[in-house]
Amino acid sequence: MAKLAFPISEYIQRQRNFYSKLPKDTLLIIPANPSAIRSNDVHYPYRANSYQMYLSGWNSEGAVLTAQYIDGNWMTSLFIQPKDVTMEIWEGRRIGTERAVSEWPIDEAYSLNDLIPKLEGFLEDCKQVHLIQNLSSEVDNLINRTLTISTTDPSSILDEMRVYKSNLEINMMKQSAELASNAHVLAMQASYSGINEFELQAVIEGYFISKGSQWSYPSIVGGGDNGTILHYTQNNCLIEDGDLVLVDAGCEIEGYASDITRTWPVNGKFTEPQKEIYDLVLNAQEATIAACQIGNSWESMHEAASDVIARGLIDLGILNCSFEEAIGKNRDGEFRKFFMHGAGHFLGLDVHDVGGGRGTDPGPELQAGMVLTVEPGLYFGSWRSDVTFPQKYSKIAVRIEDDILITKTGPVVLTKNCPKTLEEIENIVGN
Ligand code: GLY
Ligand code: MN
Ligand code: MN
Fold it and tell me: How far is the CA of 248 from the centre of ligand 3 (A)?
């Protein structure tokens, strides 16, 4: 049965902080994530909305969270699936409004059946709405019908809060990182030449499930050329003797994600060209982790990674150009042909967590309490018709990804127990 991830005081603190940034004449509405159909009567497993989980710890399907300022106090309400024996026989027990009010950090709980009439009443007492749109068409339609009301998206206020993890959140993320590290170790040990990608996926995800966890994103297990596909998830090919496998897999505990990538030779021995690329990516990763210091810009991480990668690609004879051309004016030079993604992203209740730094967003300065990934990679697909590189690097894909907590005393690698030096990996694969 569902329960709160943290003591109630954690959520009350978050609510107080958030509400202090809202105008008092507003109605806050955060609907649930809609459920998604996989095929006909079969749904995808439900994942609650991260903002709702953050503010109330509620992670059962379909709820709508509201808050409004009444008689000098902010009142938090949840509209939830009502107790209903027939529905519970088919779909599982429901918490119900009484238990919701006594055990969750909310003041009132109502049946979802009463949502629209209740919201109509709430709207009479407010002048504006803070609403996360495009989650509930029922709520969106109601607000759109109320023409006199202005609507603001509250996510940016919540994002600024979510980017700083509390001690309880950090502790949860450490557990998530530890579990995912163990899973990678088990997969390294289970590896052999000719293993199928799905066997490694099964080792990892079976371990997550055996610990009451689950993946935080579909696992990527790419052998040889498949490792050069950034979002590869088919995971159904044999991995040949001499090939590397790139495994990007993380889990979720109480919604908090880990995100780890490791790359290893399935036969337990790196070839010389594989070692060269691995070493280069590892050097770039370590330089990037070293740049994860309070006060550094988000961009400084990408600069640290790309400096090492660009220099290394020239030294290995993969790029035949100057360092300036390799880097490019806007860090978009020749190195981008082989390192196409960002150096990292924030991590938390979402694997690509809120807080900025994605795409063209410049991201914030790094501060204590932020958790992010550092994940440089290099990819030399034999199938690439758009680039040339020495044949010996063909089919090599290496990404190394760790989860990093920014602290006053420097970066703390939450995934430090996941082996990553050449020597550590060669000692563990197949053993
Ligand atoms: N696993 C998704 C990512 O590394 O960003
Ligand atoms: Mn990542
Ligand atoms: Mn990843």
Answer: 5
Q: Report which secondary-structure segment, H or E, holds 388.
A: none
> What is the pTM (predicted TM-score) of this model?
0.97
Residues 386 and 420: beta-carbon distance below 8 Å: no
Ligand 1 in contact with 248 (CB < 6 A)?
yes
For the chain, which domains are there? 8-162 (3.40.350.10), 167-428 (3.90.230.10)
**CA distances from residue 311 to 315, 330, 352 in whole angstroms, order as listed:** 6, 16, 29
Q: Which of 259, 402, 403, 426 is catalytic?
A: 259
Q: How far apart are CA 413 and CA 407, in angstroms?
A: 11
Report helix, strand or coil for 4. coil
Tell me the one-letter amino acid at 16. Answer: R
Q: What is the pLDDT of residues 321-343, one digit of tens each?
A: 999 999 999 999 999 999 999 99
In angstroms, the CA 258 to CA 350 distance is: 9
- Structure tokens that stand for 224 in this block: 């040889």
Ligand 1 atom 2 nearest Cα: 259
The phi and psi torsions of 87 (rounded to 5 degrees) equal -65, -35
Kindly report, residue by residue over 62-102, the tens digit of the pLDDT: 999 999 999 999 999 999 999 999 999 999 999 999 999 99
Dihedral sign for Cα atoms in the order 61, 66, 67, 71: negative
Active-site annotation holder among 401, 402, 403, 426: 401
Q: How far is the CA of 331 from the centre of ligand 3 (A)?
A: 22
Other C-beta atoms lying within 10 Å of the C-beta of residue 12:
12
